[in-house]
Design goal:
The structure holds 2 protein chains of 2 kinds.
Chain A (H helix, E strand, L loop, with lengths): L11 H8 L7 E4 L5 E3 L4 E3 L5 E4 L6 E8 L2 E5 L3 E5 L7
Chain B lengths: L2 E5 L19 E2 L20 E5 L5 E5 H5 L3 E9 L4 E12 H4 L9 E6 L4 E5 L9 E6 L2 E2 L9 E3 L12 E7 L28
Parallel strand pairs in B: 1-5, 2-6, 3-12
Antiparallel strand pairs in B: 3-4, 5-6, 6-9, 7-8, 7-12, 9-10, 9-11
Classes of the chains: A mainly beta, B mainly beta.
InterPro entries (chain A): DUF6510 (IPR045423)
Protein name (chain A): MJ0042 family finger-like domain-containing protein
Organism (chain A): Streptosporangium canum
């Protein structure tokens, strides 16, 4: 059997294209209640050590974003299968 | 509830010459900022419960009457939030974790605190003992408001304030460390303000 694996660096171009878009317009599904929504529809809590986006339907955590000096952490475990529009792409 | 003692840990001992000696990177605030990662739970005392589970699965429960029947301490401590504000000489009443856990048999090394609303935070069990941590039920002479974690919150003032879980509902004693809500997304696993342990790798 052929081992069709590449080094993860090969995903750089594809990931750069996706992460350059406005993520608030991306749609995903709440891992807790399965509601589909745009991230812009989440309830955002900012008076906290990081940004916390919660599902408007069930209050479950969709994403957490922590910004430190020169570093950031993004946890998206509460939202599955984000769909992005790619402007200018066909 | 009975108040058996006044405890003033030495967190104020580092001040010199009248100017507060704050941990590195902190500034002094006089108000009491409210930070929250979600909706504020409003838990009536009548339905409030605290559960401690050990590494063997043994569970210990306290309702509000059971908790407040335990000996209560008054204590004055400094608070240091990782968002860089510090508030000095805050006055609380609560039940020492030494008192709460006195009848709990465990050899666990780690604790994971859970809150109403789903928040979690982890710390070594030894940081909850020896007069370092309380289940706080009153602040500044008043019942603890929901905004500040009432009816009861964990208070571990020698660590950054995110470790002091508001609306505490359970403490799980574990053989393995389990990173909590902020510890799993960039914030330091231990969070000592005097060593400025804000983020992973600090």
């Amino acid at each position: 059997m052929t081992d069709n694996r590449l080094d993860g660096n090969a995903a750089g171009g594809a990931l750069r294209e996706v992460f350059a878009v406005d993520l608030t317009a991306a749609t995903g599904q709440c891992s807790n209640c399965s509601q589909r929504l745009a991230l812009a529809e989440s309830r955002l809590y900012t008076h906290a050590p990081g940004l916390v986006g919660r599902c408007p339907g069930c209050d479950a955590v969709l994403f957490r974003l922590v910004r430190g000096p020169g570093r950031a952490w993004l946890d998206l475990r509460g939202v599955t299968c984000l769909q992005f529009a790619l402007p200018g792409a066909t | 509830m009975s108040v058996i003692g006044i405890v003033s840990p030495g967190f104020s001992g580092r001040r010199r010459g009248g100017a507060p000696d704050l941990p590195p990177g902190q500034y002094l605030t006089e108000d009491f900022p409210v930070l929250s990662a979600g909706p504020t739970p409003h838990v009536p005392k009548e339905s409030w419960n605290l559960t401690v589970t050990t590494e063997t699965g043994a569970a210990h429960h306290w309702d509000w009457a059971g908790l407040t029947a335990l000996p209560t301490e008054r204590f004055t401590v400094d608070l240091h939030c990782v968002t860089k504000w510090s508030k000095l000489a805050t006055a609380w009443e609560g039940i020492s974790l030494d008192t709460l856990l006195a009848g709990v048999e465990t050899s666990a090394e780690y604790a994971l605190a859970h809150s109403y609303g789903g928040y979690t935070t982890n710390l070594p069990l030894e940081d909850l003992l020896d007069g370092q941590a309380w289940i706080a039920v009153r602040y500044d002479g008043e019942d603890l408001t929901p905004e500040h974690g009432g009816p009861a919150r964990l208070l571990v003032p020698h660590l950054y304030l995110w470790k002091s879980a508001k609306w505490v509902s359970a403490i799980r004693l574990l053989n393995e460390d389990h990173p909590g809500f902020w510890e799993s997304v960039g914030y330091h696993n231990y969070g000592d303000p005097w060593r400025e342990q804000r983020y992973w790798g600090d």
